[in-house]
Amino acid sequence: MRNAWLFLIFIGAFAFFTSCDKKRVYDEYKPVNGGWDKDSTLVFKLGKLDSLQNYNLFINVRNNKDYNYRNLFLITEMRFPQGKVITDTLEYEMAAPDGTWLGTGFGDVKESKLWYKENVSFTEPGKYRIAIKQAMRKNDQVDGIENLEGITHVGFRIEKDLQ
Fold first, then answer.
1. DSSP labels for 105-159?
2. Which candidate, 26, 81, 88, 136, has a CA 20 to 30 Å from the CA of 120?
3. What is the pLDDT of residues 33-47, one digit of tens each?
4. pTM for the full model?
5. Is residue 148 part of a domain?
6. Host domain of residue 82
7. What is the C-alpha to C-alpha distance for residues 14 and 125, in angstroms, rounded to an integer?
8. What NCBIfam families does the entry give (predicted)?
9. Residue ranges of the chain with pLDDT lower than 70?
10. Strand, coil or helix: 55
11. Cα gap 66→27, rounded to integer Å
12. Which residues pair with 85 in a beta bridge?
């Protein structure tokens, strides 16, 4: 009898957690091992997307205590199937002024869900590609940080805009 109750609780919890993410269309992470090199580009190849649906796009970043900065600068490139490219330089706040991480999570690793673009439609038929590079540099220096420590994973997420 006890095993039956545990099984029902497990099934209920599984159903609850899998049904809570109905907006998710695409969600992929790339590991960043040994630091994020300034010349390393993380590429996300998007599958077929509904041209009639609007989407919200996010960049997800996991960092640990080795990340020594309050903000994060990224350069993104959205490549359309017909060759059009949109490049953005973005800045995200990763920590409060007192040093408290703004991301969520337990222990040393925090995850930040960062807005990239909202209400986007993918009207061109074909495959889209998102490329992300870090663009961090120290104050009063022209050259970027060669190897950015403390970023463990970078992800890209697409959600249906249900409004």
1. -STT-EEEEEEEEEEEE--SSS-EEEEEEE----TT-SSPPSEETTEEEEEEEEE
2. 136
3. 999 999 999 999 998
4. 0.84
5. yes
6. 25-160
7. 36
8. GldH_lipo
9. 1-20
10. strand
11. 25
12. 79
